[in-house]
Amino acid sequence: MKPLETLYWLRFVLGIVAALLCVSYGLATKTISVEPNINVFTNGIALALIVYVLSYYLVKPKFMWKVDNPQKIATTGIGVYILSWLVFWVLLYTILVTNT
Protein backbone atom coordinates (compact mmCIF):
# COMPACT_ATOMS: atom_id res chain seq x y z
CA MET A 1 0.00 0.00 0.00
CA LYS A 2 1.13 3.52 -0.71
CA PRO A 3 1.91 5.78 2.28
CA LEU A 4 -1.09 8.06 1.71
CA GLU A 5 -3.43 5.06 1.43
CA THR A 6 -2.09 3.76 4.72
CA LEU A 7 -2.67 7.17 6.29
CA TYR A 8 -6.20 7.26 4.89
CA TRP A 9 -7.14 3.93 6.51
CA LEU A 10 -5.36 4.89 9.71
CA ARG A 11 -7.53 7.99 9.93
CA PHE A 12 -10.63 5.87 9.35
CA VAL A 13 -9.71 3.65 12.30
CA LEU A 14 -8.82 6.68 14.41
CA GLY A 15 -12.28 8.11 13.70
CA ILE A 16 -13.79 4.99 15.24
CA VAL A 17 -11.39 5.21 18.19
CA ALA A 18 -12.32 8.88 18.67
CA ALA A 19 -16.02 7.95 18.69
CA LEU A 20 -15.37 5.30 21.34
CA LEU A 21 -13.41 7.85 23.33
CA CYS A 22 -16.24 10.39 23.09
CA VAL A 23 -18.84 7.88 24.24
CA SER A 24 -16.59 6.66 27.05
CA TYR A 25 -16.05 10.23 28.20
CA GLY A 26 -19.79 10.83 28.09
CA LEU A 27 -20.39 7.76 30.23
CA ALA A 28 -17.66 8.72 32.68
CA THR A 29 -19.02 12.24 33.15
CA LYS A 30 -22.66 11.06 33.04
CA THR A 31 -23.57 13.55 30.31
CA ILE A 32 -25.21 10.93 28.08
CA SER A 33 -28.94 11.23 28.68
CA VAL A 34 -32.24 11.38 26.82
CA GLU A 35 -32.52 15.16 27.24
CA PRO A 36 -30.56 17.20 24.71
CA ASN A 37 -27.32 18.46 26.19
CA ILE A 38 -24.96 20.86 24.38
CA ASN A 39 -22.03 19.68 26.52
CA VAL A 40 -22.11 16.26 24.90
CA PHE A 41 -21.77 17.82 21.46
CA THR A 42 -19.01 20.28 22.37
CA ASN A 43 -17.07 17.66 24.34
CA GLY A 44 -17.34 15.25 21.41
CA ILE A 45 -16.09 17.77 18.89
CA ALA A 46 -13.22 18.79 21.16
CA LEU A 47 -12.13 15.19 21.70
CA ALA A 48 -12.36 14.44 17.97
CA LEU A 49 -10.18 17.47 17.17
CA ILE A 50 -7.64 16.48 19.81
CA VAL A 51 -7.38 12.95 18.43
CA TYR A 52 -6.94 14.27 14.88
CA VAL A 53 -4.24 16.74 15.86
CA LEU A 54 -2.43 14.08 17.88
CA SER A 55 -2.60 11.72 14.92
CA TYR A 56 -0.95 14.36 12.77
CA TYR A 57 1.96 14.82 15.14
CA LEU A 58 2.37 11.08 15.67
CA VAL A 59 2.43 10.09 11.98
CA LYS A 60 4.28 13.13 10.63
CA PRO A 61 7.79 11.81 11.42
CA LYS A 62 7.02 8.45 9.84
CA PHE A 63 5.48 9.76 6.60
CA MET A 64 7.47 12.99 6.17
CA TRP A 65 10.00 11.54 3.76
CA LYS A 66 7.66 9.07 2.05
CA VAL A 67 5.24 11.57 0.45
CA ASP A 68 5.86 14.12 -2.28
CA ASN A 69 4.05 16.97 -0.55
CA PRO A 70 4.36 16.99 3.28
CA GLN A 71 1.18 19.12 3.55
CA LYS A 72 -0.82 16.10 2.40
CA ILE A 73 -0.08 14.45 5.75
CA ALA A 74 -2.39 16.96 7.42
CA THR A 75 -5.22 16.72 4.89
CA THR A 76 -5.26 13.09 3.76
CA GLY A 77 -8.16 11.25 5.32
CA ILE A 78 -9.79 14.22 7.03
CA GLY A 79 -13.14 13.52 5.37
CA VAL A 80 -13.22 9.83 6.22
CA TYR A 81 -12.08 10.67 9.76
CA ILE A 82 -14.95 13.10 10.31
CA LEU A 83 -17.52 10.78 8.75
CA SER A 84 -16.39 7.66 10.60
CA TRP A 85 -16.23 9.56 13.88
CA LEU A 86 -19.68 11.07 13.38
CA VAL A 87 -21.36 7.85 12.25
CA PHE A 88 -19.94 5.70 15.02
CA TRP A 89 -20.44 8.38 17.68
CA VAL A 90 -24.11 8.83 16.77
CA LEU A 91 -24.61 5.06 16.52
CA LEU A 92 -23.06 4.33 19.90
CA TYR A 93 -24.74 7.31 21.54
CA THR A 94 -28.14 6.21 20.21
CA ILE A 95 -27.62 2.67 21.43
CA LEU A 96 -26.69 3.89 24.90
CA VAL A 97 -29.55 6.39 25.16
CA THR A 98 -32.18 3.83 24.16
CA ASN A 99 -30.86 1.36 26.73
CA THR A 100 -31.07 3.82 29.64
- How many domains, as an integer? 1
Averaged pLDDT, please?
A: 90
What are the secondary-structure elements, in order, as H or E? Answer: HHHH
Total strand count, please? 0
Give the helix proportion (percent range). Answer: over 70%
Question: How big is the Rg?
Answer: 15 Å
Q: Structural class of the helix and strand makeup?
A: mainly alpha
Number of H/I helices: 4
| Main sheet properties | none
Through-space gap between termini: 43 Å
Percent strand equals under 5%
- Detail the poorly predicted runs: none
Rough outline: elongated
How would you describe the overall organization of this protein?
- This protein has 100 residues and is mainly α.
- It has one domain (12-95).
- The chain has 4 helices and no strands.
- The protein has helices at 3-29, 38-63, 72-75, 78-99.
- The mean pLDDT is 90.
Could you provide a short overview of the structure?
Helix content is 79%, strand content 0%. The protein is mainly alpha-helical and 100 residues long. The protein has one domain (12-95).
